[in-house]
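Q: Can I see a sequence and its folded structure?
A: Here is a first one.
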Amino acid sequence: METSPTTPKPETTPTALSPIAEKLLQAVADEIKGDVIARHKINKLSPSFPYHHRTMANRDCLGTGVKEFITVGGRRFYLTKSLLDMLRADLSKTK
């Protein structure tokens, strides 16, 4: 069967997370209260967050960290939604 250029491609569904990964993601989301979180405070505000703040700094340098952030006075602040999106993507890679 041939597809014409106007035929929409099937959408890829995000991979489902394991129940423990969902619980981890929910625990981190519950611990972070605001819309923005400081990278250097992430482990104090969310003890369940699986990465150390220095690991997050390394990932930022490599370009594999949180996509939406702002830097103020040498400190990096992440949007909580973007942080959770990054964590969800990382958790979906594991089997």
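Q: Show me another, different protein.
A: A second, unrelated one:
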Amino acid sequence: MSTLLENNFRDAVNVAAATRQVAYAAATATYAGVFANLATYIAALVTADNAYYDAVQTAATTAGISPGVVSLPGGFMPGKTATIVT
């Protein structure tokens, strides 16, 4: 059974993840496979990832959970660094 703070943390992470998914969808629609839009697409993904990571860390701190124990998955851009494999 989790505490109220843990439940609030879980809810905040879910909201942050949903927000990031919406941002990813908007970035993908903007990119639309057009090479000229690639830089904007990558910038949008990095911004979405940074906002997600920051929201999770803030939620952890608010819930009294050490940010060091919150494991953030390395998704498309782990470590807040954009990488493109060509």
